[in-house]
Amino acid sequence: MFPLRSSHLSGIFLAALLAAGAAATAAPVSATVENATTATACAEEDNVSMVLRGEGIRRMRIEALQPAYLDSVGSDTTAPDFSGCNFDGGAHPTDPAHKFKPRRVVLLDDAQWRIVGMTLPSFWRPQQVPVRVGARTDRGFHMLQIFRKEEGKALEALVLYPADGYWRIKPLPQARFGDGVYGSSFLLGPVEQGSRPVVDIASIRIVPKPLAIHLRFVGGGSAVAKVSEISRARTALDVTLSKPTANARPFAVLRSMYVAPDNADVSELRWQESAEAAEQVLPLPDVKTLSATQVRFGRSLPSKHNTSAPDIEFSGFDDKAPR
To answer: Under a CB-based contact definition with an 8 Å cutoff, are residues 114 and 81 in contact?
Structure first.
């Protein structure tokens, strides 16, 4: 074996230095969060829209986390409050009403999971998305509910709405809160803006072991949401996108409700601009646009609406392609 010449060694050393320098100066992958919230007096209306954009993002984590004040709450407040609304719990007055035959189908029921598909008598969109769970196929569900079994009891932790692309997730509830309650929802994928934002899903495939939700989008591309944890502390989804995101189009929208700091499903944002940066916090109305490698949509003050509902956090933005 011949020894390397000094010129070769110098070249290798220089290349190593350049690579190390590039790694040291590379900016962390971040998302831009835009506040598109509108004012409302109705506690049952999603007036909060936090729009997430980014360039080149391929992976992220989405978590539902218990609110920081939960241990101080003795009893939950979950009853709907229509006192400031122009509707009373039925269909929203401005929504179309497409009619369907109601049904409830248990798509999977094993020792760990129960997955249920539900078709409602009326829904605001006509889409009937094909769904596959394991080897079973069906279509036309308005809700896909995922329950985690614990000590023989099935506890709901995730709902996906195939016809408009909305998700709700929550940790397993503490015993004193019964089944617990959802708060904020979110969209994941190429967001379309109409009368309200939606994501058009072409098909859904759920793999039970390990539990993962595979989405194909109508406009192309796909996503996989691996259910990494469902526990008393959190429900966590590790998301991989088939295509890198582009700033021109939102890849997610957090939807929620805000009337006042003590009557809201989200009333503040906590975020970091980089992994090394100090955490920042602002009340929701004061947020305009921010850049974040991690952002938590939540509450510090107990709300009189959905008191135990979780915070929702987006983090782990990564531009690396899946292996």
So the answer is: no
Q: What is the DSSP letter of 173?
A: P
The answer to whether 210 and 228 have CB atoms below 8 angstroms apart is no
- Indicate the SS3 state at residue 24: helix
Sequence-distant (≥ 6) Cβ neighbours of residue 98 within 8 angstroms? 122, 123, 124, 125, 126
So what's the pLDDT on residue 122?
Answer: 96
- What's the rounded Cα separation, in Å, for the pair 312 and 208? 24
Q: Give the DSSP letter of residue 22.
A: H
Q: Mind listing the pLDDT tens digit for each residue in 113-170?
A: 999 999 999 999 999 999 999 999 999 999 999 999 998 899 999 999 999 999 999 9
The full set of domain ranges for the chain reads 29-87+174-318
The bridge status of strand 48-53 relative to strand 252-256 is antiparallel
Phi and psi at residue 13, in whole multiples of 5°?
A: -65, -40
Rounded distance, CA 91 to CA 179, Å?
24
The rounded distance, in Å, linking the Cα atoms of 19 and 40 is 52
Quick one: which of 216, 210, 259, 255 has its CA closest to 236?
A: 210
Q: Are 228 and 240 in contact (CB under 8 A)?
A: no
